[in-house]
Amino acid sequence: MKSRTGVICEPSHARKDVSWCTRIAEENKEATQPASRGKAMSANGASTCFSRRTFVGVAMASVGALAMGRIPMLMAAQKGKGSVTRYPLHIPPIYSPSNFALTAAPGVVDLGGGTGSSVLAYNGLFPGPTLHANTGDSASINFSNGLSEQTSVHWHGMIVPTSADGGPLNAVTPGSSYSYQFLIKQRACLNWYHPHPHMLTGEQVCLGLAGAFIINDAEESALGLPSGIHEVPLIIRDASLDSKGNLIYNPTTTGFDGKSPLVNGTRNPKLDVETALYRFRVLNGANARLFRLSLSTGTPFTLIGNDGGLLETSAQVGQIEFGPGERLDLLVDFRGLAVGAKVMLRDLNAGWDLLEFDVTRQVTDAYIIPTTLSTITKLTNPVVTRTFKFEGMSKINGRVYDMSRIDFQVPFGQTERWQFTTGHNAPHPVHVHGASFQVQSRSGGRGVMFPWERAWKDTVLLQDGETVEVLIRFDEYKGLYLLHCHKLEHEDMGMMSNFEVV
Ligand SMILES: [Cu+2]
Asked: Residue 494 Cα, ligand 1 centroid: separation in angstroms?
């Protein structure tokens, strides 16, 4: 295996990073408790702000993607006036999380076209390997930190003990290992894993560290939904590249704003499809960007699930806007299209073509989408109401995150009403660790609940002027968990809160 030097940051980028850290510091001066913040920073990362750019990475650099034989062929035949060269969509390999070794390290991957791009990769892959398990399985993931800075692995959407939650308090130092052990108790859904170290999450996710974690269960299997080549994970994000084609992280105070989209780490991707019904497991894996998905044909998606798994019934939805950390389970019907037809998955917000579907093979697919997908037991009768105001770009209820502070306690097994509210600086995709919730209402702003906000969620989008009410109950584990904004630059600036289930 050939090794290459992983050049993550150019000098100009490093300068931008210093200004980014300066802005974080300035924003945090507004904190109502500057003393505690200063303590947290000195204990946990002020210096990392300026040293975290010093990725060594040479020995750890991997050509995993290239070595795994997924060098796309240049599609020269597609070149022409008004067309772009499209590369086959990369689909990460699938592994069981039982006794699985996972390493985060600098790597070199192929984003399309066969050119190596420096990234941060899980097991040399971007996105990382897809983990797949069934409800009731045990996960035992032996993680090694091959970065030159601390990191952790958070299993976004997974209900796991605090010891396995991978939050900032459980960071893994460079060169160290940690074993994440948990039982998979929850229903079928698409979750994902990504770093969650204090003040470094935005950088590490943006540079490539993320992967899908799919749970299956008997209820879902009984539906006979599209599977195999007809079930495709889509991790959609934006990215910026330097002059050599390497991923760079150059956020502004409003968040990282990448110049072009990547789907499964592929630029200008295309996917050959059959005349069949397909199931797309979609994650907004961007740091800060909202996508508004639609199909070029005007055909609606059949929405069947979201963060927490299947909805009770499907819905036909022409456009879906979702924020960082949110997931969608979508059926797209290519039956009735002729071989040779092309359909584009688009982002209407940026006007981007995200993924081209090329119908290449005629098959017979008589599957009928079930009318009833699942039964959702509704949370009712909350005994407590808590309000969380997401303010500026770094505060919840007037406070910047302090690793050493526990902001509130939640009784185990108690149903509560949580109100998330904001005036400005949205979007704030609000994410809770340790339990899923059920969205009840949205007032102000867009003023409605959307079809993809039914059933179970762990991340819900707040726009300016909005208040979203959810019901939540922590009934799996006691311990420390997090509530935070999943716009990763807001998270890194401190829009995060520790709470304890007691
Ligand atoms: Cu936010």
From this structure: 10
pLDDT tens digits, residue range 12-21? 333 233 333 3
CA-to-CA dists, residue 423 to 315, 392, 463, 469, angstroms: 31, 9, 8, 15
Distance from residue 411's CA to the centre of ligand 1 (Å): 26
| CA 209 to centroid of ligand 1, rounded, Å | 20
Q: How far is the CA of 195 from the centre of ligand 1 (A)?
A: 18
Q: Which residue has the tokens 């997931």?
A: 327
CA 444 to centroid of ligand 1, rounded, Å: 17
Cβ atoms of 438 and 457 closer than 8 Å = yes
Q: Which residues pair with 442 in a beta bridge?
A: 468
Cis preceding linkage at 427, omega within 30: yes
Give the distance (Å) from ligand 1 centre to CA of residue 397: 13
pTM above 0.70, yes or no: yes
C-alpha of residue 485 to centroid of ligand 1, in Å: 5
The SS3 of residue 56 is coil
Nearest to 108 by CA among 60, 159, 174: 60
The residue count of the chain comes to: 502
Q: Which amino acid appears at position 282 of this protein?
A: V
Residue with tokens 């993550």: 8
* 3-class SS of residue 11: helix
- In a 13 Å sphere around the CA of 314, the CA atoms on its Cβ side amount to 19
Per-residue pLDDT reduced to its tens digit, 267-282: 999 999 999 999 999 9
Average pLDDT of every residue of the chain: 87
Which pLDDT does position 115 carry in this prediction? 87
Query: How close is the Cα of 502 to the center of ligand 1, in Å?
Result: 27
Whether residue 346 contacts residue 353, with contact meaning beta carbons closer than 8 Å, is answered with yes
Maximum Cα interatomic distance, the chain, rounded to a whole number of Å = 67
Q: How far is the CA of 314 from the centre of ligand 1 (A)?
A: 30
Cα–Cα distance, 90 to 131 (Å, whole number): 16
Q: How far is the CA of 224 from the centre of ligand 1 (A)?
A: 38
429-455 average pLDDT score: 98
The answer, yes or no, to whether residue 26 has pLDDT greater than 90, is no
Ligand 1 centroid distance, CA of 427 (Å): 6
Instruction: Give me ligand 1 centre to Cα 81, in Å.
Output: 41
3-state SS class at 157: coil
Q: β-pairing, 428-432 with 138-145?
A: unpaired
Strands 467-473, 437-443: pairing kind: antiparallel
Arithmetic mean of pLDDT, 452-474:
98
Report the distance separating Cα 318 and Cα 305, nearest Å: 15
Mean pLDDT of 445-470: 98
- Contact between 114 and 69 under an 8 Å Cβ cutoff? The reply is no
Pair of tokens at residue 434 = 């340790």
